[in-house]
């Protein structure tokens, strides 16, 4: 085995390890819920932002992908301990799939405080696009916007600010 091959293998194992740890953090955050219908409020978006911002776009997206595969295969990782392909076809599926581009975009949260804040805010808002559009298939667009976005604005502001503060504190440490 050449040194380059060994380095690539080690990098691949590290990525897989970080992705599994990230998916575990995402699964744990899904269990912290405020029951709302049709979309529960969880701490998942905070973790999605941190996975991307701290791990980079590749690690963040890999962790989210691992989480989605685990849930699709029946591990009880989704909100409220739910699992299975039906969850990925239900009202919250768009939000779950929206975690992927949100984590990747959060991976660009580098540089100045205003840039980091803008990137994390954009990443957080990005996941609402597929979420609301998918939810609209179940509730209609007006109800989807209200139940899948407007009600989440205060939590989005708080979790984005918390992600920014955590990111800055960890990068200083």
CATH architecture: Orthogonal Bundle
* Series of secondary-structure elements, N-terminal to C-terminal: HEEHHHHHH
End-to-end Cα distance, whole Å, is 37 Å
The helical percent reads over 70%
Tally of DSSP β-strands: 2
As a whole number of angstroms, the C-alpha radius of gyration is: 16 Å
Mean pLDDT: 96
Strand order of the largest sheet: 1-2
Describe this structure in words.
By secondary structure, the protein is mostly helical. The protein has one domain: Arp2/3 complex 21 kDa subunit ARPC3 (Orthogonal Bundle), CATH 1.10.1760. Helices cover 72% and strands 2% of the residues. The chain is built from 7 helices and 2 strands, in the order αββαααααα. Strand 1 and strand 2 form a beta hairpin. Helix 4 packs across helix 7 (153-172). The longest helix is centred in the middle third of the chain and has 29 residues, at 44-72. The chain is globular and about 55 Å long. The relative contact order is 0.14. The model has no long low-confidence stretch (mean pLDDT 96).
Relevant terms:
173 residues; mainly alpha; globular; single chain; two-stranded antiparallel sheet
Topology:
Layout: H1 3-30, E1 33-34, E2 41-42, H2 44-72, H3 93-106, H4 113-126, H5 128-139, H6 141-148, H7 153-172
Antiparallel strand pairs: 1-2
Helix pairs in contact: 1-2, 2-3, 2-7, 3-4, 3-5, 4-7, 5-6
